[in-house]
Amino acid sequence: MVALQYLSRRTAALLVTLVIACTITFVVFHIIPGDPALLMLGTEADPEVLTGLRQELGLDLPLHVQYLNWLKAVLAGDLGFSTRLKRPVAGLIGERLPVTISLAVLSMLLTLVISIPAGAYAATHHGQPIDYIIVFASQIGMAIPHFWLGILLILLFSMYWKVLPPGGFVQWSADPWKAFLSLVLPAFALATHRVASLTRITRASMLDALTQDYIRTGQSKGLPKLSLIYKHALKNSLMPIVTVAGMQFASLLAGSIVAEEVFALPGLGRLLLQAIGYRDLPLVQGIALFIAIVVVLVNFVTDILYMILDPRVRYK
Amino acid sequence: MAVVWKEKQLEAEGRGKERASLFQPPCKRASRVNICVGAVMLLAIAALAVISALSIVSPPNAMDIRARLVPPSKEHLLGTDHFGRDLFSRVAYGGRVALKVGLGSTVMAALLGVSLGGWAGYRGGWWDETIMRIVDGLMAFPGVLFAIMLVTVLGPGMKNTILAIGFANLPLFARITRASFLSARNTLYVEAARALGARPRHIVWRHVFPNSIGPIVVQATVTCSTAILTEASLSYLGLGIQPPYPSWGRMLKEAQPYMGRAPWLVLVPGLAVFFTVIALNLLGDGLRDWLDPNTR
Questions:
Q1: Residue A28 pLDDT more than 50?
Q2: Tell me, what's the pLDDT at B16?
Q3: Is residue A180 within a helix (H) or strand (E), and if so which, with residue range?
Q4: CA A135 to chain CA centroid, nearest Å
Q5: In angstroms, rounded to a whole number, what is the distance separating the alpha carbons of residues A30 and A39?
Q6: Which residues, numbered 25 to 54 in chain A, qualify as contacts with chain B under a Cβ-Cβ cut-off of 8 Å?
Q7: Inter-chain contacts counted by CB atoms under 8 A, chains A and B
Q8: Which residue on chain B is closest to A30 by alpha carbon?
Q9: Quick one: which of A252, A232, A283 has its CA closest to A88?
Q10: Residue pLDDT, tens place only, B147-190
Q11: ipTM, interface predicted TM-score of the complex
Q12: Is A152 exposed, middle or buried (0-12, 13-18, 19+ CB in 10 A)?
């Protein structure tokens, strides 16, 4: 019962945040530049062509009417129409999604597999040399720009050692192994910063959990050490880890724009960059809105996970 | 696991338990080491920037086509790029640009964010709800994405980059300030001040704000390092700082086609960003440990 109340509260917050995100997108693209038609065609365009474009985009209507029309369209799933590629934005996004999702999932798996054990190990061996090494490594990892790391990885693995492709992407359906190989380096480049960050969080959270009384009780009871660490300490320290991991996954899905540029992957991020280059404002707006919606949804899923992991949360 | 009991003992003695910095300080003295190391590294970058400003080195945009892609030598300390421009002076000038963008956007985000968050936190009620909802909406856009959006509509260039990154980092400051102000509102000293007839403005400036400054300062260093990374990403994508100003990010982009022939072109700008970001992170960690009331 309490769970249902919690869910309904989180759903209400979700809807409000979605509407506000939509509004912010509209404001950025319609109010700030002043005249999207001018922005798209340039200041030297023919006035008649400008008027035609304005009518086509519905810019001659009053602002609040434009906003409501656009909101209605978005709710129906219509994210706009690309003026350069002459296709609906939603379709274009759908085409590029598989690459971005594959990269995001691979990167997230890598992050989780490395950082949680590392953080837990550092916490259980606190004060010993390995702890210092892990903390030092995470400091380094957080400071490396991921696109620089990507370039260095290409230098090492594609040019000197020639084991992995330097970029480009083969569709999964055509050649799954090659597709996987072309995602390895980008996944590593993206994962580094996140591994560093998540390891710090895991370590801090585990250290908190390990000093609790129930751990001491468990040890005096004679519980096996592995069970103590993983079943009790780790499970209870999951909340901050899940928070950060959720945020990281959301930002990964958000297009990993620079990584796709470095490795020439045909994903969402690259579509966005091309749209910006061609001043295809409807496409840019559609992608930006899509990413924001995905982020809000992932945060919502994280909230649901909270509810499952820590029943006390339902009473907040 | 005996280590964990030692931790409990230390904690009982009043010393903190976990430090996640380069030199793990169990006490304030060692946290000062972090601050010093970070500050020194940052000063090195600033010194480079100043050197470039005083034109002691060769101008960053002077091309010498005869000396293209020269490896590090006595004449060109870090080599030259594909246009024959001296890499060392470009990196130094790029430091100036990076620091300008970092500081500018941090100050902007801090001023706007603290004002909004402080207002929401202190007034509470309807103001709080509305402002925080808007902040939540802003946080739905990942930092780089929001910066890209703003630069798309405003155009590239240094001023717009600072504006864009500043706006993207605003929500964090708002949240932190609101939390501090909210908790300060319920303290005894504020209640006492109000009972003595102090006006709200006096309470905020004299009592609440000075006690909230700690987390804001720490967040400022974090924001500065994120801002520098974001600026490098934007410039790499061609959306940030435009020619003729050198930018570490764009230097990496221009160097990428030549990385087989001239790897130093790709190593040096990245190292510069790395160095600056680590300096800021160390400074931030040290400050956070120093300001943490749990450390003796």
A1: yes
A2: 38
A3: helix A176-210
A4: 25
A5: 11
A6: 25, 28-29, 32-33, 39
A7: 162
A8: B153
A9: A283
A10: 888 888 888 888 989 999 999 999 989 988 888 888 888 888 88
A11: 0.84
A12: middle
